[in-house]
Amino acid sequence: MNGDILPGWRISNWLLGGEWRAHPVRALVAIAAIALGIALGFAIHLINAAAFNEFSAAVKSLSGQADLQVRGAAPYFDEALFPRLAQRKEIALASPVLEVDAAVPGQNQALKLVGIDVFRAAAIAPALTGVPDEDRVFDTLADDAVFLSPAAMEWLKLKTGDTLNLQSGTGTVSLRVAGGIVRAQAGQRIAVMDIGALQWRFDRLGRLSRVDLRLTEGVDRAAFKNTLTRELGGGFAVTETSDQEARTASMSRAYRVNLNVLALVALFTGAFLVFSTQALSVIRRRSQLALLRVVGLGRRALLTQILLEGAVLGVIGSLLGLALGYAIAATALHFFGGDLGGGYFPGVRPSVRFTPVAAGLFFVLGIAVALLGCASPAWEAARAKPAQALKSGSEDVMLSRLSSPWPAITCLAAGALLTQMPPVFSLPIFGYLAVMLLLIGGIALMPRLAALVFAALSGVAQRGSNVVATLALARLANAPNQASIALGGVLSSFSLMVAMAIMVASFRVSVDDWLSQVLSADLYVQSATSGSTGALNSTEQQAIERTPGIARVDFLRIQQLTLDPARPSVALIARTIDVLNPDRTLPIMGEPMTTSLAPSAMPVWVSEAMVDLYGYTVGREVTLPLGGREHTFTVAGIWRDYARQSGAIQMRLTDYQKLTGDTDINDAGLWLQPGVSPEKAIAALKQLPFAGALKFSEPGEIRAISLKIFDRSFAVTYLLELVAIVIGLFGVAATFSAQTLARAKEFGMLRHVGVTRRQILAVLASEGCLLTALGIIVGFVLGWSISLILVFVVNPQSFHWTMQLHMPWAGLIAVAAVLLAAAGATALASGRYAVSGDAVRAVREDW
Hints:
Elements: H1 9-22, H2 24-63, E1 68-72, E2 77-78, H3 81-86, E3 91-102, E4 111-116, H4 118-124, E5 130-131, E6 145-148, H5 150-156, E7 163-168, E8 171-181, E9 190-194, H6 195-201, E10 207-208, E11 210-215, H7 221-232, E12 236-239, H8 241-284, H9 286-294, H10 299-336, H11 356-383, H12 386-389, H13 406-418, H14 429-444, H15 446-462, H16 467-478, H17 480-518, E13 523-526, H18 538-545, E14 550-561, E15 570-575, E16 588-589, E17 603-607, H19 608-614, E18 621-626, E19 629-639, E20 648-652, H20 653-660, E21 667-672, H21 678-685, E22 695-697, H22 699-713, H23 715-742, H24 744-752, H25 757-799, H26 809-834, H27 839-843
Parallel strand pairs: 4-9, 6-8, 15-20, 17-19
Antiparallel strand pairs: 1-11, 1-12, 2-10, 3-4, 3-11, 5-8, 6-9, 7-8, 13-21, 13-22, 14-15, 14-21, 16-19, 17-20, 18-19
Helix pairs in contact: 2-8, 2-10, 2-11, 2-23, 8-11, 8-17, 8-23, 10-11, 13-14, 14-25, 15-16, 15-17, 16-25, 17-22, 17-23, 17-25, 23-26, 25-26
């Protein structure tokens, strides 16, 4: 046979089919790992793509055919700006819009209510106009009429002619459902009414949310956008529809990237399982492959054959993964929507769509991972000398290159250096690379580490009289490379599981501690559970303060500020804060400014995200748009906030009210008098005339709900931890089974020199437990190191918050015990089959 051409299809099929028939479980484990990694990655891609595309379409339907939009930094601005814009010669048409997130009694989500000038909106955003009955064409201008999208009607269980009740302050606004909307996206819950009626009914007289602009033909949009931005100043933003899409994409980018990286954990583990599978297969067939070389099979043909075997694993795994990923995406979108716990795409109902390009990329990725896993075994098999490979006992020689520690040390050192690198486009790219290099370096270091550890233990065992311990440690010490192959899949899956478990536990404990600190009041009162229309006026605030049993009340006013059109809004929280002791109210980090603050300065306290995103460091003077003007504040401290990754600012309620004239509040924290229970206080508050609009919550209830939301947000991570454990267990089973069966000659020789079957089984069980114990110890150290990167590098760079390290000892010990027991049981079960044959038959090919 010519060595420069591919082997015939008969030889190729014979080798591939024989290997699969001999060890189907090992191949199925590798396929399952690849399929699972591809499935999770493809499913997350499909879910996010569907949700983002649907959300973008919804944004476009609200914007219509506007060339530009003028928005305020605050949620609302004075409508006096509208005529100034409408009269400009560069603007052909200006359409005023008022948007409010109306609280719906009995619902936990708000309804987006859009007020439009129907005559102007019909030319810019015709999809937003209502469709009245033929005999009531003027309902589009009526002050009591509202038009609902199909999704909103379905959600609220209303039809044309019914009454829709919405909350305004502590009162209720009743509107007549006059019909539907011309066109709305599937799942888009919106309502439309006349802008004047909306301003009047919801106490927004003279206020607008935005002005949609259509430019005169021939006007340079980019140049006019820059000009208008300069003229309007920092209190306004001039944007395009694409800007809002980019803003949404930017807001969810870190979340999407982190999910995809976590989804590839299983695929990364699959690469090591393919390596383990192919390396053990080549070791077991070393003499057979050498014999093929002797009879004429060339190096190129043999290399191609081993790569083909790995590629088949990758093709099957990728195809199964794509099908499973599509099914997962369709199921998740049907039952849970497109948020996956992130909350970035509210108000849409996306449906999964198969994307051939993405499917092709994931398919190629799965095959590439499989080929990468079998590249080293294929190369070693092709370059081995036939005469040497035909000899028994040369199996460990082919893996001698693995014993060099320098590549591993280089990877570990490079990973440590990359942890000091800054983020790239607000993504922890170097952090992810550091995790990968640490994992590769740790696994590559195992041959040398195994040789050192087991050689030392073997020396101790030889001074004793325990035959089982002596044989087990001698085997591990003298064949460390084969032992390390068995640890590849185990070590990768266990270390990644440890890292994710520590990261999630650290985050959860940090959030729990943070909630205990910020929820310091005895009882909390909300004017509405959602939306922006619920509020308590000054008279109602005084009534709450005078309620019997109430010792002190901390009122809060929350609104959104847009400081950068390219970034999500930041939360502005106004409340009572003691400048000299801000830590009584806020979870302050570091040393705040207290006595050094100028008497005339207006202080603000910013979250960690504001430092990363906007550079708001302690002592810096910053400008914020409030009350239609820009005002200067001094950053007096930094506080920890796990609720808002886009940033939050807290300021004194008195400063806010002085600058804006807004005396309404959203929420209140109540401290009760001694001996007064929360139940008694709630009963007293329910006697107030506006009590029907109030929502009461105790700190424990809020804490439980918050942690439940946290667990739901990390459901994918918990799934991946489970996947890592299962893959690790199957990897242990398949690897030890293959190694045990490949050592039938060794066991036959031991039988000849007087070692009993029971002793051989004990040796195998000891080897499995010792090897897995070393893998668990190294995996724990490696996983702990990776968790430090996740906790102190990846999370701060992705979400702009820090956390404390917490070790979930109980869970880690339980998983380690299961792995250890599985390794011993698998080695024992495989050994029973390997030693069941006749001792003479097992060694006769060496005679």
